[in-house]
């Protein structure tokens, strides 16, 4: 990243600062101070750090050490999961967070694959495949539903990369549609007193209770929310650390920061989509799809509570968005202009 921030960097930073500022203001109005360890602070900091790291990493993507590092990371994640008994699986302590991290590693492996020389692609391909294995080891249905198609997309882009900007436009449109549909579906389910059997097979009764509590709190404080941390205090399941959050980013934000917070969350999400789409066509398709997978998964779980997951999402955005600027570094030596 250049020493001087460009327009896109300044805009993205302004959105994140506004988010933290609103969370702090809402806490103050509720007579409380916003903890620096709150997800309302840690998540945007992690996202910004990830974008910066991904932007710095993009020019070096052709180096074999990058793909090898991703392979080592995915293997470590798989071993840590398999070596941990019970639901609180290492390294994050939450199976779905492990799986969500693995999905982001699938996308990062795809970005590495797109930059790797033809004869050195096996580490990136291996990392992408192992990442899906991590989702399987964590028994995360959502991660498998999202990660499986993402792996297919990664392999397809590696075999025949998108060359036209049309691919970026299609990816961006599908991303916006997927985010809108997932948010709408969660909001609709949260208002139902009972869930259909087809839904109840995958989402337990505790989640239905948490979502119902979040919707009730949001309705009572529609515009501005009840303040960060309010859900844990008022939810019937709040005293249990495992159910102290709403397990849905949009419902948690709506309940605690109202429609203002939801609008800012949407701005962050769409800025991420736009940023990832600034890269080369193939990288943009992979980057947008990977970021979208995290956003959609976050609609049904509390993934933003895990800094490493948000950090990985930021790296995807930064790397994808900077890929166009590093394009000259991806040209094989024999094809460089003389």
Automatic annotation (TrEMBL):
Membrane keyword on record: yes
UniProt KW 4Fe-4S keyword: no
A Pfam family assignment: Wzy_C
Record's keyword terms, sorted: Membrane, Transmembrane, Transmembrane helix
Segments crossing the lipid bilayer: 40-58, 65-84, 124-157, 169-190, 258-277, 282-300, 306-324
Main location: membrane
GO cellular component, one term: membrane
Membrane disposition: Multi-pass membrane protein
Intracellular or extracellular location(s): Membrane
Chain coiled-coil ranges: none
Domain O-antigen ligase-related: 127-266
Organism domain of life: Bacteria
Protein name: O-antigen polymerase
Organism: Intrasporangium calvum (strain ATCC 23552 / DSM 43043 / JCM 3097 / NBRC 12989 / NCIMB 10167 / NRRL B-3866 / 7 KIP)
């Amino acid at each position: 990243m250049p020493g001087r921030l460009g327009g896109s960097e300044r805009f993205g930073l302004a959105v994140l600062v506004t988010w933290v500022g609103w969370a702090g203001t809402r806490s103050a109005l509720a007579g409380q101070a916003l903890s620096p360890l709150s997800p309302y602070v840690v998540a945007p900091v992690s996202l910004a750090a990830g974008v910066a790291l991904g932007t710095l990493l993009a020019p070096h993507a052709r180096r074999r050490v990058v793909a090898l590092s991703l392979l080592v990371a995915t293997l470590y994640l798989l071993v840590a999961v398999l070596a941990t008994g019970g639901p609180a699986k290492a390294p994050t302590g939450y199976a779905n967070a492990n799986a969500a991290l693995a999905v982001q590693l699938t996308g990062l492996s795809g970005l590495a694959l797109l930059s790797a020389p033809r004869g050195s692609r096996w580490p990136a391909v291996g990392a992408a495949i192992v990442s899906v294995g991590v989702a399987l080891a964590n028994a995360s249905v959502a991660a498998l539903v999202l990660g499986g198609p993402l792996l297919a997309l990664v392999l397809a882009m590696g075999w025949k990369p998108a060359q036209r900007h049309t691919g970026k436009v299609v990816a961006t449109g599908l991303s916006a549609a997927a985010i809108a549909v997932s948010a709408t579906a969660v909001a609709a389910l949260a208002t139902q007193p009972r869930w259909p059997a087809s839904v109840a097979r995958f989402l337990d009764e505790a989640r239905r209770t948490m979502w119902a509590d979040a919707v009730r709190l949001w309705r009572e404080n529609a515009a501005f929310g009840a303040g960060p941390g309010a859900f844990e205090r008022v939810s019937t399941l709040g005293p249990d650390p495992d159910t102290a959050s709403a397990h849905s980013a949009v419902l948690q934000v709506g309940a605690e920061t109202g429609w203002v917070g939801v609008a800012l969350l949407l701005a962050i999400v769409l800025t991420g989509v736009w940023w990832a789409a600034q890269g080369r066509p193939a990288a943009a398709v992979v980057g947008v799809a990977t970021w979208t997978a995290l956003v959609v998964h976050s609609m049904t779980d509390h993934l933003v509570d895990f800094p490493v997951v948000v950090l990985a999402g930021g790296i995807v955005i930064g790397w994808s968005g900077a890929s166009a600027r590093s394009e000259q570094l991806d040209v094989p030596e024999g094809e460089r202009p003389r």
